[in-house]
Amino acid sequence: MAGNKSYTIVEYFGGDDGYRCGYCKNEKGNFSHGMWSHTMTVQDYQDLIDRGWRRSGKYVYKPIMNKTCCPQYTIRCHAVKFQPSKSHKKILKKMSKFISKGELPTGQDDGEPMDSVCEEAGPREPSKVSHAEVKCPVVTDIQKEVAECPAITEVQKEVADALPTGSEMPRKDPVSVPDGRTTATPPKPGMGADPSRPPCRKAKDLRKERRIQKEQMRQHADGVSSIVSPTPSTPTQTNQPKNLEDFINESLPDNSSHCLEVRLVRSNPPSPQFKASFDASYQVYKLYQMAIHKDPPDKPSESQFRRFLCDSPLEAEYSPDGPEVGYGSFHQQYWLDGRIVAVGVIDILPTCVSSVYLYYHPEFASMSLGSYSALREIAFTRHLQKQSPKLSYYYLGFYIHSCPKMRYKGQYRPSDLLCPETYVWVPIERCLPQLENSRYARFNQDPDAGDARALKDVGRALVLYRRAVMPYAAYSRKRKSSSDETEVQQYAGLVGQDCAERILLYRA
What backbone torsions phi and psi does residue 101 show, to the nearest 5 degrees? Predict the structure, then answer.
């Protein structure tokens, strides 16, 4: 980003071994490429998730789509164009009713399981690399051996802490019927609306107009000039549907039973607010893992929580044309009456808000918090888009059609799925028929289309070797006995030529 000289440093692990699938529970059926990221820029991560990668803590993995048991397709929602469905409105109204009246629904959530527990993505420990080797590579004369390679100075960990800062049908008078329902009186032949009577108005519009008139009269009596004028209701205004924010911000009575507040705290580097609420947040996670995922009491450890949901390779970055909160990794904490009841882990990237995980207190399992938090995060994305126009997408992680319980993500429309071969976005409506016939599908219908950012020259891939940054062409000459060309070629093909020329691949 602007003024930021940080670089991404990764260790690539390959993807030959199968491991347990968190969706179908196949013990060896899940296959993915993986790499450990010591540090990563938000632009590099944006480019990686647009090629099917996804992070779990500092581990970044990419499912091997034509091999894994449950193919996982990257899905994004056009947040600005999103309109809540009938089921989404029901969830929002359920939350509003709970806050205003204190009525907690009975029974379990009918809902939406989160992505599989992060550790099941198969992260591995990185090599024993010294802090100096990872953070402070220097340019050597070797780099000059390839003239076309862009010059790179020094990898810096610190980021400058510079905050940028149609017409309505006439109504009919209902008449009562014996069973208590109402029905409309059929119109008499040849009779239409009485032109001598004013058009029918909704009761809420009449009440609003009377309220405004009373306010004008009060202000006039007090000698205050009023600039408020009643706006006559028009059919367009009357029929305009509520948007997402209308449902979320629906006015509640002063005597509401509960108070819900959503707080955004930066998790990396941890803000004071994040540190102060860490213990409370961890306790909610522990209860969630034991109740929802049936973990034993000793498994949801604090170190596990920190490693998978707090640690992140993304440093804080700010840009003049970016959102005020900056880019990077955050927790959205849901505080109910002064205590944390749910936490959404998210990344704010140059063109999207990426959902990482959600956990919540089991006491509120009937509140459909999976869907509710997604709706709140879509609304948050729309808010950020007003500050940064290019930030207009909401990434829901992976869409898994072969797992029926994970199909709920496809209900956030309009949305796209990422083609696993050409890395172009395809509307989900065009993808679903293919997924009904096969777990793995190429969504791009152009048979001649390929990966536009495919590897063209592995020699330009950047390597971090003995604290020096060099193109792979120079590295391979220096290590004539090296047998890792196949691995480097595989890695560069997976991240794409652009990322290969920016990301530093650590070689021991």
Answer: -115, -10
Is residue 105's pLDDT more than 70? yes
Other beta carbons within 10 Å of 409 = 24
**CA–CA distance, 73 with 53 (Å, rounded to integer):** 10
β-pairing verdict for 504-507 and 462-465: parallel
Judged by phi (left if over 0) then psi (alpha if -120 to 50, else beta), residue 42 lies in alpha
How far is 151 from 474, CA to CA, in rounded Å?
A: 13
**Measured between alpha carbons, how far is 495 from 436 in angstroms, rounded to an integer?**
29
Whole-number average pLDDT of the chain: 82
Q: Tokens for 458?
A: 């592995």
**Residue 37 in tokens:** 């990221």
Residue 229 has pLDDT above 60, yes or no: no
Percent residues over pLDDT 70 in the chain: 72
Q: 3-state DSSP call for residue 161?
A: coil
DSSP state of 461: S
The CA distance from 20 to 156, in Å, is 37
Question: What is the rounded CA–CA span in Å between residue 289 and residue 295?
Answer: 6
Crossing angle for the helix pair 42-49 and 485-500, to the nearest 10 degrees: 110
CA 132, 134, 136, 139: dihedral to nearest 10 degrees? 120
C-alpha pair distances (Å), 378 with each of 189, 251, 259, 324, 396: 50, 20, 21, 17, 10
* Token pair belonging to 218: 């009060």
Alpha-carbon Rg for the chain, nearest whole angstrom, is 28
- Write down the residue that tokens 């076309």 correspond to: 148
Task: Determine the residue type at 393.
Answer: Y
Model pLDDT, residue 135: 53
Q: How confident is the model at residue 208 (pLDDT cuts 50, 70, 90)?
A: low
pLDDT band of residue 16 (cuts 50, 70, 90) is confident
| Higher-confidence position of 22 and 357 | 357
CA distance 302 to 278: 10
d(CA 164, CA 162): 6
Residue with tokens 């869907």: 371
Give SS3 for 32.
Answer: strand
Residue ranges of E strands in 198-286: 260-268
Tens of pLDDT, residues 311-324: 999 999 999 999 99
Interatomic CA distance for residues 484 and 232, integer angstroms: 74
> H/E element holding 301?
none
Q: Which of 502, 480, 475, 500 is nearest to 489 (CA)?
A: 500
- Inter-residue contact 32 to 66 (CB < 8 Å): no
**Residue 57, CA distances (Å) to 203, 304, 306, 309, 314 in order:** 53, 10, 8, 6, 10
